[in-house]
C-alpha cells in the first residue's frame, strides 16, 4: 500500500470526472430508496435485537451466580461475551451513528444512548462519526488508520519505534475499549505540551472518561460479583474474560474494515475541493468487507459490510446486506475492485500489513512513486 495519489498506476485512472459524478448520483439513488422505505420492519428488527441482547445478558449473569461450577462458568461467560459483542457492535455502534433516529424513539436514539464501553458516547461520536467517517483513510487526518499509534502505509515516515508495533497492536487488541478511550482523547497530541494538558476542555474530557471507566469497573468487577456471593471470584474472572473476548473480536472486525490488502489510502491534498462523487469513491476504495453468513453479519454489527456502511453510515444496518449486490454491481460497472474476503483471510491480511510496515521501506521494498496520477480524458475525447 502507498497513497493512491502517489502510485505509478492508479485504480481510478480510467474514470473521468463525469464518471465519478455519475457514480455518486447512482449511490445517492440507492440511499434515497432505502430512506423512503424505512418502516415498521426495520424498527421491529432493532427492538428485537435489543430485547434479545438484554435477555441474553440477564440470563448469562443469572447463570454466573453459580459460576463456582465449571459448566455454569462456561455457559455464563460465553453468553455474556456474545451479549457484550452485540451491545457494542450491532446496537451501540449503529444507534450512535443515528441509524435509528428516524424512529423518534428516545430510548433508541443517538443523542441518548450510552454504551457498555470505556469511552463516553459523546467523545466516541466526535472521533468516529465526525472525524473518521469524514476523513476516511486520509493520511494525517484519519486517526482510525492505525489508531494513531501504528504505521500502516509506506508513505508514513518510518521510525525505529515502529519495530514494536506488532506487540503493541496485540496489547491494544486485548484492552481495546481502553485504547478507544485513549484514542478519543487524542492523548498523544494533548499530552505533548503543558498548554494542551492544562486545557479545560481536555481536562473535562479526561474526567468524563475516568468516570465512565469507574462505572464500568464497578458494574463488572464489584456489583455483579458481589451479587454472586460465594461465586464472587469466578464471576470476576467471567466478566474479565467476556470483556477480553469482546475486545479481541471488536479489534479484529475493525482491522478487517480498513487494513487488509486492496484497501487504498489518500493524501491530504487529494480531498481539497472534494465533490460528493469523489467522497463516495474514497469510501469505496478505502473500505473492505468480510464475507460470511447472517450470524457473522449480526456479530460484526453488519460491519462485515464495511463498504456499504462507509457509503451510508446512518442507514439501518439490517439493510446493508440488501443493498450490497447493487453496490458491488456499481464497482463492476465502473471497473473498480470490491475488496472482500473471509474473516480469517482479512484478519491475516491486516496483521501481515502491521508486521510488514513495522519495517523500513528499504527492507520491504516501497513501490515506485514517480509518475503522478492525472485525471483521465473524458469518454468523448477517447472516442474522438
Q: Topology of this protein?
A:
Elements: H1 17-37, H2 40-63, H3 70-96, H4 121-132, H5 165-174, H6 176-185, H7 187-190, H8 194-197, H9 200-227, H10 232-258, H11 276-285, E1 289-291, H12 294-299, H13 306-311, H14 320-333, E2 340-342, H15 343-356, H16 361-364, H17 379-383
Parallel strand pairs: 1-2
Report on this model:
The chain is an all-alpha fold. It has one domain. The protein is 59% helix and 2% strand. It has 17 helices and two strands. It has helices at 17-37, 40-63, 70-96, 121-132, 165-174, 176-185, 187-190, 194-197, 200-227, 232-258, 276-285, 294-299, 306-311, 320-333, 343-356, 361-364, 379-383; strands at 289-291, 340-342. Strands 1-2 form a two-stranded parallel sheet. It is globular. The protein starts with 16 loop residues before the first helix and ends with a helix. The model is unreliable at 368-384 (pLDDT under 50).
Count of alpha and pi helical runs:
17
Residues in helices, as a percent range: 55-70%
- Gyration radius, rounded: 22 Å
Tell me the fraction of residues in β-strands, as a range: under 5%
Largest sheet: 2 strands, parallel
Give the strand order, joined by hyphens, for the main sheet: 1-2
Low-confidence stretches: 368-384
Q: List the domain count as a whole number.
A: 1
- Please write the string of helix (H) and strand (E) elements: HHHHHHHHHHHEHHHEHHH
Number of strands: 2
Overall pLDDT score: 91
Structural class: mainly alpha
